[in-house]
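REQUEST FORM: STRUCTURE PREDICTION
Request ID: SP-0412
Submitted by: Lab K.M.
Chain count: 1
Length (residues): 129
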Amino acid sequence: MRFWASPDQHAPLSEYEREYASFWQKVPTIVFSRTLRDADPGVRIVREVNPVEVARLKESTEGELSLGGASLAAEFRRLGLIDEYWVYVYPILVGGGKPMFQGEATERLRLLETLQFDSGTTLLRYERA
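STATUS: Completed
RESULT:
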C-alpha cells in the first residue's frame, strides 16, 4: 500500500507499473486490519468484516470492488460476499506459502474469461455457479 503511494522513491518502474500506480493512487482504499495503527491519506482502516457494511459499500460504489490476501478472501468467502473470483496464475513455481483458499467448504465455479498477458501471467475469471 505505501509502495504504491510513492513508488518512484522505491525502485525504477516499468511503464505498466507506473500506470498501475497512477490508477492505485486514485482509488479509495479500505484496509482490513486488527493491528494497523495508521495508513496513508485516503486509506481507511476497518477492523472487522461486516456483511451489512460490505453490502452498503457495494451498492454505493460505481464499478467493481476487489480484495486481496488469502485470509481476507477466506473471510469474505465464508460470509458469501464474493461474486467473482479473479485468479492470476504467475509462471513461477514456489515450494510453500499460504493456501489460496482456506476452510472446508467446496464451491462450484463457472469460468467466465481467460486472459494471457505478455508476461506469461494468466487471469482466470470465475463466478459462483
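NOTES: The beta strands are 29-32, 43-46, 84-89, 109-116, 122-128.
Reviewed by: T.R.
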